[in-house]
Amino acid sequence: MDNHRKGLLLTALGVLIISPDALLLRVISLPAEQIVLWRGLLNVLGFWLIVVARHQSRWWQAYRGCSRAGLGCALLFSFSTIGFILGNHFTKAGNVLVILASAPLIAALLSRFFLQERLPMRTWVAICVCLFGIGLIVLDDTGATSWLGSSFALMAALGLAGNLTLARSRPDIDMSPMLALSGLITAALAWLWSGEVVLPDAINMGWLLLLCLILMPVGFTLIQQGPRYLPSAEVSLLLLLETVFGTLLVWLFLSERPSNQGLLGGAIVLMAILTKSGLERRRQRLVYREG
What we know:
With 291 residues, this protein is mostly helical. It has one domain (3-290). Helix content is 79%, strand content 0%. The protein has helices at 3-18, 21-27, 32-55, 59-64, 67-90, 93-100, 103-114, 121-138, 147-168, 178-194, 202-224, 232-239, 241-254, 260-290. Helix 1 (3-18) packs antiparallel against helix 11 and helix 6 (93-100) packs antiparallel against helix 8 (121-138). The chain starts with a helix and ends with a helix.
């Protein structure tokens, strides 16, 4: 399997796994700062267990190899996590998704400026089409914008794009072990903010364990490896699928049916990504035949 296809499969699988994120955040009935705190604490354990399972007795060497770039990835991922949760707390989810959908464009600009990566025109076109589709999904929710929530959402988009771009700068190193450190940073910042740790009831703890101990560590471990094989803009472009799948899950389990306009936007995002993937496969076949 070539590196490009491997990167696509790893990232797409990771996105599918984290798709229930928005649904479970709606189900968990805790203050925002406590969700951030418990998400951080459980992420530490979840990501660390994955590192141990992958590297066994040499798990500590996985951290030594990440160097300063790994510390930067951990910090940026923490900012993205906090921004996403608090953005949804202070403003409508639609506003957060509109701003978060700018992550592929931010990643493309960062990659172009810092890594001198030239993206093909089809990637830029796919980014623009996806932004249009995401805009349709949440257009009805953009009337009650909160500047504070929007600021947190922008922090989430910048953190996500920056993390993937920094990981892309060292494709020879697996940065996913540093996501455990990110959970520790997230929990520490949440504790400084709230000043206390509130033990959730059994139901909320169950949802937190599912989301933060299993789904997030497994999904983001896969996604974090995407920049080893793909430009960061392509990885964050695939992350837009979470918006579509997350909307469908909320519709299925909470009976919140998207509008016809929202369904159209989701179809546009899916078609843009599928079309781009098809063009990539066609190009790879032509290169293989010519070679």
